[in-house]
Amino acid sequence: MALGGFWSDQDRANRTIQTLKTLKAQRAPIEQVERGLRDLAELLALTDPDDQASLAQLGQDVAALEAQLDRLEIQRLLGGGLDERHAILAVHSGAGGTESCDWTQMLLRMYRRWAEERGYATEVIDLLPGEEAGVKNATLIVKGPYAYGYLQGEEGVHRLVRISPFDANKRRHTSFASVDVVPESDEDAPIEIKDADLRIDVYRSSGKGGQSVNTTDSAVRITHLPTGLVVQCQDERSQLQNKTKALHVLKARLADRERRKREEAAAKEYHAKQKIEWGSQIRSYVLHPYNMVKDHRTEHETGNAMAVLDGKLDPFMESYLKWKAKSGTATN
Fold first, then answer.
1. Who contacts 110 (Cβ-Cβ below 8 Å, separation ≥6)?
2. pLDDT digits over 239-254, tens only?
3. Global pTM?
């Protein structure tokens, strides 16, 4: 970064800065634990074995250091080659009509709140509203160190059980939505996208109006003909900007597709796409007749469902990383 002309290539400079942030994020907790160990050793040498108050304080300091070590262990588990990257997260409504569209919107809010608490930046690049309420599908880019590493375990079907706010008879309903997560692609990755392989459609944005956002055909939908992958972007005001972002997402998904092909022999069941319906869920969120969120892979659960829906996802993500390491499931 100190070299002359560093900023002449803006994109490369930004990637270098992101690498620096990632390295600092790796090093800082290690240094913090080392300082804590040194401080504890000094305090132990000065503590009177008969001083109960000092011993109690020392016990609290030990517990705090253990918590730091637990966080350091999570960082160690985020050691895959793609874990440090930004993430592209998509949510899709499943069986359940308006109920599922509302549930999809709740999930989108949950992930945005989680990202906000971690200091990550989020950008919704595509959103299709439901016919009556909620969201049919949406694509969110989450930018921050290890965003993909943390979010990778969220991929799958999420099930909600609650009293329906759309049912006049106040009956209990079950809704489903799916989450897909891919790492943002490396701009230098050798992913070739031929113009002849693309079908590009433009249409009017369905977002909020103003400043010609939904008065011109600025939204872009790109179909990759060889694979059938479809990406959309409508958050920018110009067609060119939306096309650039859509191509960026397409490249990430093509890279992820190739990675999964390579891993198929070693982990055939991992990342398998299932129907968005009963029996295929990775996690259940129950709001009636009791409150509980349970991950069906790790068995981790909590009775504070509202906190989870408000973005308190770290315990589930950390449990997934430990489960993945224990089971030897490869994702990177």
1. 308, 309, 310, 311, 313
2. 999 999 999 899 899 9
3. 0.72
